[in-house]
Write a structure and sequence with these properties.
Blueprint: E1 3-6, E2 10-17, H1 21-29, H2 31-37, E3 43-50, E4 57-64, E5 70-81, E6 85-93, E7 104-112, E8 117-124, H3 132-151
Antiparallel strand pairs: 1-2, 2-8, 3-4, 4-5, 5-6, 6-7, 7-8
Helix pairs in contact: 1-2
Length: 152
């Protein structure tokens, strides 16, 4: 299921995944799992550090598979309700962790559908010219594929 809504600076995507909320939660909160699916096509996570608790920090570094680009994001966890809701801030940063863009806010909501999970992702505060919906749609496709590989 693909449902995209884009307003001025907010983007919402919804997917139904063939995995339990527990497993989907781990995809978002375990750096090893997160590194295997996060990011648009052609980009891989080269480093992910996550202190998943309210006030905890998250740092993610993505690198283009051809080595042409490297991007870092940092943020703070604002809300952590295990297997239900995860909210964190995110901003592009330089190599020293200094913000290079305004904070945005990512909300991940999970709903148990009896062995499957409805995931609703909202990314608020995106720049007007952002390709956030496209990048997130690619990332969620990679997430679904990664989950399928775990089930096999």
């Amino acid at each position: 299921m693909h449902d995209e809504q884009t307003t001025s600076n907010d983007m919402t995507l919804e997917r139904v995944l063939d995995a339990t909320p527990d497993l989907v939660w781990r995809m978002w909160t375990d750096p090893d799992h997160f590194s295997r699916w996060y990011g648009p096509a052609g980009v891989s996570v080269s480093d992910a550090r996550m202190d998943v608790r309210v006030g905890g920090r998250r740092d993610v570094e993505m690198t283009a598979n051809d080595g042409s680009m490297q991007v870092r994001f940092s943020g703070e966890y604002l809300e952590v309700v295990e297997q239900i809701r995860l909210v964190y801030t995110e901003a592009m940063t330089d190599t020293d962790g200094n913000p290079q863009s305004p904070d945005t806010e990512v909300t991940v909501e999970l709903e148990d559908l009896g062995g499957r999970t409805r995931l609703v992702l909202t990314h608020a505060g995106l720049p007007q010219d952002s390709h956030g919906a496209t990048g997130w749609a690619m990332a969620l496709d990679k997430l679904a594929s990664h989950l399928g590989g775990l089930a096999a």
